Amino acid sequence: MFYQPRDGHGLPHNPFNAIVTPRPIGWISSRGADGHDNLAPYSFFNAVAYTPPQVMFASTGVKPDRDGTKDSVANIRETGVFCCNIVGFEMRHAMNASSATLPGDTDEFAHAGLDKVECETISCARVAGVPAALECRMTQIVALEGDSNFMVLGEVTGVYMRDDCLRDGLFDITRYRPLSRLGYRDYTVIDRLFTLSRPDD
Going from the N-terminus, what domains does the chain have, and what CATH number goes with each? Predict the structure, then answer.
């Protein structure tokens, strides 16, 4: 089949995010100017540059108690910093619990039963026990086409890696099995790898 998004797809559910898979999950922690911590998962998330290291995530919804966006973007507008926590398989239920729509002054760390640790280079909390976390200084918030669509870009100012995930000098993702987002309500876990050498290596 072929369809133009403006005309609709005619299927029971939108296939767009089932086509663009798997997607890494950015478990974004932020802190508002009032000191309240927030934590929410975003599947429009990725690394976008090496030097300096930069990441992005996109927020595509709105909360009634925020000005046309969600808590994460609102907090980052206020403070200019955020942290990308990497989700291992063992934290899947806590990650899902933190996706609940809650009042802006609710701490999702507490709601999901998670401990927090203060970041090293920014005034923000990260999730205790995650395999890795990227502390970020916001560089841009870009308004995208459509209502309440925002892309947040950040420069990585600090990198945390859990010691047991390092093996022979490499960050070994099989030690924590990263969770990835598929379409609909589906997820997958990465636990099998293979290597391809580039033709010019």
Answer: 5-189 (2.30.110.10)
Pairwise CA distance, residues 188 & 108, whole Å? 23
> d(Cα 115, Cα 1) in Å, to the nearest integer?
47
Residue 8 has pLDDT above 90, yes or no: yes
Structure tokens at 52: 């300096």
CA nearest to 45, candidates 20, 16, 75? 20
pTM: 0.94
| Residue bearing tokens 């767009």 | 16
Strand partners, 84: 28, 134
**Placement of tokens 């924590």 in the chain:** 176
Give me the DSSP letters along 8-28. ---SSS--HHHHS--EE-EEE
DSSP 104: T
pLDDT (0 to 100) of residue 137: 98
Tens-place pLDDT, residues 119-140: 999 999 999 999 999 999 999 9
